[in-house]
Every structure is written in C-alpha cells, then in structure tokens.
Hints:
This protein is mostly beta strands. 0% of the residues lie in helices and 54% in strands.
Amino acid sequence: MKPHAEIEEVWPRDGRIRVVGRLHGRRGDGGRDWQLLLVRRSSTREQLRYGARVEGDRFESEVPVADLAAYDPAGIEQWDLHFTDGEVKLRAGRQLDDIRGKKNIMVFPAQRVPAARGTLTVQPYYTVQDNLSLECRV
C-alpha cells in the first residue's frame, strides 16, 4: 500500500473539523513542518493550509469551517484532505481497517456557517476510495 495519512478519528463540532491519525509509510521526524492541506476539487490551485502537530507517525490538525465560506460554491463543492511536509503530499483517508465502502456506511454531522449567499453546510465524508473529503453546499 502506498504512503498515506491514515485517519483514525474525525471530530466535526464547535465550528471545526479535527482529524487525528497516523502517517503510513512515512515518519514525521526530521525537523520538517507538516501541514494539513485542503485542495478544492473544482480548482486545484485553490488550497488552504493549516498547521499539523506530528510526533513520530502520529498527527493531529483541524480546519475552521468558517474558512470555507470565503469560497463561494456553485451548488456542491468538494475539498480533498492531504498532509504535506513540503516534500511529499499524502492523501488522508482510512485504508487499513477492514471496512470497505465507507461512503455508504459512515456519516458525519454537518456544520453550518454564514456565507455570502446564505448558509454554508460543511460535512466530512469518505469517498468511494475511502479517502476523507469535505462537502460544502449553500
């Protein structure tokens, strides 16, 4: 299995989405600063970066959902989660458990935040490849 950021916990509450897990196939040691990287699927040049606490192979980071309201979605918008140290970019997901098809099994609560055209709903979800993404809707 190729290196990735293995998600162990997702905490969507209090205006934030917190993710906790382990780097699989890559250690966080070496003095590099790790970041949680959100990449807008419809325009990959649009990215958001957040500091990540990485010790050994363990990581933790969070996204303030209000930051996503600045990007005016036309209908439904997806953001893909990655962890990066500037050298490598690891897709965030949950691959090492025995649960396949998480998209149809695991449902996370949505959070609402004021946006330019109404209320933005932000909800974490697993993709068909069991990677973690965020869905935004007005």
